[in-house]
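Ticket #4471: structure export looks truncated?
Reporter: QA, pipeline team
Priority: medium

Steps to reproduce: submit the single chain below to the structure queue and open the exported record.
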Amino acid sequence: MNVAPNPEGEQNVRRLQPLRVLLSGRDRRFLRVTSFLLAQRGYDVQETSPRRTLESVERHHSDVVLLETNDSRTMAARKVAALQALSVAPSVLVVYDDEPEPWPGLLAVRKWTPIETLVEQIEAAALARPAPLTESERAFR
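Actual output as written to the record:
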C-alpha cells in the first residue's frame, strides 16, 4: 500500500492492487447493480452463483466475498465455514434481506444498503481477513 497526502493534508491509503471482491448470490439485479457500483470505485469485482462460490474464490483469489443468501442461517453458516476452511480464506460478508437484525457471529450487511456503507463494510472485512495457513496448518487439515 502507498500512503499519499491529499489536498487537505490528510493521508490516504492506496493499494498497489485493487481489492478483489466476489459477489455470490441469486438476485441478478442486486449482483449487477452492486458489481457496477463497486467497479466504479476501483474494486476488481466478479460475480458467481451460490453453487460455484468456492470454485470462484479459488480462481479469482478473492479478498472479500459478499454472500447474498436467501437460505436459512444454517445453510449460510455452512457456506461461510467452507469459505473459511480454504487455505487462503477470504473475508466473508453475509448480505441479508428480510432479517430484523444482523446475524450474530458473522460479518453481515443489509441488502440494498447505501454504497458508501457497503464500501466501509467491505474495507473493514478486508482488514479482518484471516492470515493464510502455514504449511503445517495445511497438513493438519
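Status: closed, not a bug. The export was complete when the record was re-opened. Leaving a note from the reviewer for reference: Strands lie at 2-5, 11-14, 20-24, 44-48, 64-68, 91-96, 108-110.
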